[in-house]
Amino acid sequence: xxxxxxxxxxxxxxxxxxxxxxxxxxxxxxxxxxxxxxxxxxxxxxxxxxxxxxxxxxxxxxxxxxxxxxxxxxxxxxxxxxxxxxxxxxxxxxxxxxxxxxxxxxxxxxxxxxxxxxxxxxxxxxxxxxxxxxxxxxxxxxxxxxxxxxxxxxxxxxxxxxxxxxxxxxxxxxxxxxxxxxxxxxxxxxxxxxxxxxxxxxxxxxxxxxxxxxxxxxxxxxxxxxxxxxxxxxxxxxxxxxxxxxxxxxxxxxxxxxxxxxxxxxxxxxxxxxxxxxxxxxxxxxxxxxxx
Length: 292
Prior knowledge:
Blueprint: E1 10-13, E2 21-23, E3 27-28, H1 29-44, E4 52-57, H2 66-72, H3 77-81, E5 88-90, E6 93-94, H4 99-110, E7 116-120, H5 121-129, H6 149-157, E8 161-166, H7 172-184, E9 191-195, H8 199-217, H9 225-231, H10 249-273
Parallel strand pairs: 2-5, 3-6, 4-8, 4-9, 7-8
Antiparallel strand pairs: 1-5, 1-9
């Protein structure tokens, strides 16, 4: 049932019970998080202790998409049964290179007023067993900026968005049960299941971006002078009036001269071939006027 979603970078479950929306548009993680949180606020903001949970499946040992490997092997049966109840499925999400990039994009999408915390699968499970307790504990930050266990527990209890890192060594049964429990938990506003892109896809995208930068930095081609005059102010105010040509004026003049030279040469050679001498030679030429 989930085989068609094996390549889906992001599956979203929210409180709404509408038909699943499939999107093939290029989407950023920040946009998905922002849209999901806004929908959650409108639907069940009061009943949710945690606005959103983002599960990020790491690559497998071979460097391929971990979520694809799990779903194609049937290791996530409970999640597969909930696939049809997903609110939306985004088939092309950018910015999923690792858990840190997802967390960074989630902070941009959630806004500065919401707390985004990175956590592990088992740490999130322990937080669920405590029913997302909001009891505040004494915060303590070390000199190097690291978080003490007490402050870590407080950060988890007050988090609005959690980014759960699922390692490639995690037990598939734990992944299936924990994600399914989060989807069914009324205190969780929305659940997003995604995966880190494979190494091949990341390298391919980086190569394409490098080629795009090289093209942007290369010298632009010449454009028609008329377009420059119509734009005004050297053509800086109207980019839509810029026209690019395949031939520069010098190249075009050279092509026209080549065809003209070829025509003149062919005509001259043809005229020279028409020159012919007499066929009969005599010792005495006839008098003038009696050549015939």
